[in-house]
Each structure stands twice: as structure tokens, then as C-alpha cells.
Amino acid sequence: MPRAWGEPTGAAKAHGSVDADTDEALMLAYAAGNASAFDRLYARHKGALYRYVLRHCANAGVADELFQDIWMNVIRVRASYVPTARFGSWLFTLAHHRIVDHWRASGQATMVMLDDDDDAITSNALVSPSHDQPDARAAASEALARVRAALAALPPLQRDAFLLHQEAGLTLAEIGQMTGVGVETVKSRVRYAMARLRAAFPELGEHV
Amino acid sequence: MTPDRESADPALDAMLRDGATETPPAHVDAAILAAAHRAVASAPRTHARRPWRVWLPLAAAATVAAVVIGLHPVEQQTPEAVSARDTPPAAAPESGQGAAMSAPSNTATPAAAKPQPARARISSPHAESPAFPATAPRDEASAAAAAPPARTESTAASAAPRARTDAPAAPRAATEAAATAREAPRAAPAQRLDEARVSSTQVPRDARIAEAIERMRALRRGGRDAEAAAELERLRQAVSDADARLPPDLRDWALSVRR
Fold first, then answer.
1. By percentage, how much of chain A surpasses pLDDT 70?
2. Calpha distance B67→B239 (Å, rounded)
3. What residue spans define the domains of chain B?
4. Which of A24, A123, B12, B130 has the greatest number of C-beta atoms within 10 Å?
5. Which chain A residue lies closest to B37 (C-alpha atoms)?
């Protein structure tokens, strides 16, 4: 179930109190050896994280691999987890770093960093939407395909900021801290992304 | 809407949410969950110490049982030795002579010898050891005579319950043993042989006590106080005056180890 826009995470709901059901408590429980705590944590975040990774990847196979790498990293560093930030922010920071590593490894890093408003660069960032790949698994409804195509058409940095904001539910400040840019930069990236997406769906009409 | 969040676009939100249906494939889920479970299952946890907590008391109990069982047959043998293990009359004088030859060193006073049966709870194999073959009393006596210093110390320790095995007590005990040994020739040859056998079996027991003391020292030096305490407990169960037998460096520590 995708997180609704603005839906707070467990930690925000608890307003900082240490609740056994919060993401942070579950992660600490897992670090202490409680495997079922990880099961719950994974169930909560796997969808949003998977879609975040999938939107950045050329095909689902690569997305699966990166997705698995991210969770393996969570498992590996569990002992050093300290809830100084929300768990979601921490998780998607790991995911963002893995995505950036993937860009570097695939030679896309330079293109991504040049100018996030350049469509010409964007078109080279993703080879093709995942639904065009023979191994596409998700439902191939037209709307879904259009959404994916629209997201894939975004400049990588705008897409990243938008997905962190929309899928992961991170605040602009959290995204800025993660990506190393200011809040205003993050805000402009998100706004540009929303504008481009809206342009891809003219039936939505003008946003007031 | 918090100031830190960008303005929501409900229509776009709905469109994107409807398109956000992808989930990881089942085999990826399974692999990740299995890895997560394996990671904590293989990590050292508190329950990993449970097996240690289980077998250590069992090991201690088994050790104590072995000591008790080992000492018990000797206690049973001691009153019967006069009748069952008596050497043939022809051999008695020889054994008596052998015992007499080594009397100053291997016997204590009869009074001191009397507690020995109670203390000589030593496993019978020692009595039957090659050094003390029952069929060769002369060899036994000569073997006993061959190790007078150790036997002297052991008899001194048995004669003085609070005596320690350190050097200063040995000369005094040796004097006592020599003085009381003058009464030894008056004892029956069979009894003298029995006393020799009992006193000779004190050696392995005292050696084990000394070994236990060394083990405790080594454990404490290695910072393994819990194991050293377990060792002390075993010694206390095997020897009634265990604490008195401890050297000064362990005695203070033993006071802090509760029984």
C-alpha cells in the first residue's frame, strides 16, 4: 500500500515517543536479534522502496538487484543503527546512495550531475521504461504505463527528489540533507517534477 | 500541511498512487527475509550462553560425583583391607619389615592414622596402581619408601587438618611423624601395611588438591573468576577443609566466594 501524500511515519505519529510499534523500535529490536521485527519493518517499507528503486532503473532485473543490495546493507549495519533520524529517512538514504553508486557504475553519474533540467540528458538516463522490457511483471494498464513513462522522462535529480518526497514521504529538509543540497533546491526540483508530470497528464487539468 | 512539505496536488497524487502498485517479486522477498533471519540467528546472542549454563553445572556435578565415587571404594576397602587384603602370613613379616624400614617416613601415629581412613577417600585404582600392586607388598613398601618426602607432607597434612602443604609446616610435621612413628613397630604387621597403603594413597589425593589449586590460580590469572569459583566449589565438596588448604593468594579470594 503506497504511502499517502503527507502521511507521517511511525516516529512522527508517536511524536518522538519510544513506541514498540514504531519503525525505529522495530529496527532496534531487530538489531537486538528479533527477526520478526525485521519482517514487520520489511513489510511496511518494501513497496515504497521498491518503487523508488524501480523508477530509477532501466529494467526490473536491475531494480531487484539494487533493492536486494539495499536491504542487505540494512541487515549488515543493523548493529550500528542509531535512531537519530526517522527510520524511513535512514532507509532511503541507504537507497539513494545505492542508486548513486549504480549511476556511477553504469556511467550515468556525469550525465545526471550536469543539469537536472536538461531533457536531453534525461532521455539518456533511462534506456527504456520497464514495461517495454520482456521481463516486465507489473500490470500493463495504460495509466500505469503512462505514469512510469512520465517518471522515467524526468531528469534524474528531479525524479529522485520527487520520489523521495512522494514515495518515501521524506521532508524537504531530509531530502536536502540526504542529497547534500539546500531545502530551496529540493523544493524547486520537486516543483519542476510535479509540473512535468502534470504536463504528461493533460486530462488532469490545471493545478490550482 | 507542514512548511517543510511541498504543496500537494491531489489529482496528480491520485494518478501517481494508482500507478504505484509495483511490489518486489516473491523470490526477492524470500531471499531478503531469509538473509535477515540468518543474520540474527548466527549472531552471538544471550541464548547462546544457555548451553554453557547447562553443561557447566552438569560438568561440575559429574566431577563431584566422580570424586565421591572415586573416594568411596577406598573408604569401603579400608576396614576390609585387614581381612581381605591381608598378605599371606609368609609375606607379612616381609611387608612388615618393609613397612618398618620406611616407618619414619610413611607412617604417622596410630592416632593420626585413625583419621586417615576417613580422609583416605581415594579411588581404588591408586591402591591398585602399578606402584602399589597388591600382590607385591614388598614392592609397595619399597615404592612407598622411595617417596618419603611427599608422603611426609601428606601425612603431616592429614595429621594437622589446618596444616598447609607449604614448606614451613613440613619440617615440624616430619618431626611429629618421626616421633610418633616410634610407636609404629608395636602395630600389627597387617595394620602397618594397611596404614602404609592408606598413607600412600594420600599422595594422589593431595596431588589432586594441589592441581585444583593450580587450576584456580590459572583461571584467576586469566580473568576467569567464575570458572575458578566453580573449581573452588568442587574442591569444597570433595574436601571438607578445602579453604584451609588454599594458599594465601587464594584464601582471601575464597572468602568472597560464597558456598
1. 73
2. 10
3. 59-255
4. A24
5. A35
Q: Which residue has the cell 588438591?
A: B209
* B64: phi then psi, degrees, rounded to nearest 5: -65, -45
Q: What per-residue string of b and e applies to B117-140 under the rule 16 or more CB within 10 Å gives b? A: bebbbbbbebbeeebbeeeebebb
pLDDT of residue B137: 43
Residue in the structure block whose three cell numbers are 520527487: A162
pLDDT in tens, chain B (259 residues): 444 555 567 887 777 777 778 899 999 999 999 999 999 987 665 554 555 666 777 888 888 888 888 877 655 555 555 555 555 555 444 444 444 444 444 444 444 444 444 444 444 444 444 444 444 444 444 444 444 444 444 444 444 445 444 545 555 655 665 566 565 555 555 555 555 554 555 556 888 888 999 999 889 888 888 899 999 999 998 888 888 888 888 888 888 887 6
- A170 vs A121 pLDDT, higher one: A170
AA identity, residue B163: A
What is Dmax (Cα atoms) for chain B?
119
Q: At what angle do helices A87-105 and A23-31 cross, to 10 degrees?
A: 70
Between chains, do B22 and A138 touch, taking CB under 8 Å as contact?
yes
- Residue of A5, A28, A81 to mutate, interface with B, max B Cβ within 10 Å: A5
Nearest-CA distance B230 → chain A (Å): 30
What's the confidence (pLDDT) of residue A121?
A: 42
Residues of B in contact with A42 (CB under 8 A): 29, 32-33, 36
pLDDT at A198: 85
Using DSSP, state whether A180 is helix, strand or coil.
coil
Report CB contact under 8 Å: A190, B31.
no
In angstroms, what separates the C-alpha of B26 from chain A's closest C-alpha?
11
Cα distances (Å, whole numbers) of residue B157 to B38, B74, B161, B169, B216 = 57, 19, 6, 9, 20
Which B-chain residues 42-101 have CB contacts (< 8 A) with chain A?
43, 45
User: For chain A, what are the domain ranges?
Assistant: 10-204
CB B251 within 8 A of CB B168: no
Contact B39 A137 (CB under 8 A): no
- Site from A50, A98, A183 to mutate, B interface, most B CB atoms within 10 angstroms: A50
Judge: A38–B33 Cβ closer than 8 Å, yes or no.
yes
pTM: 0.48
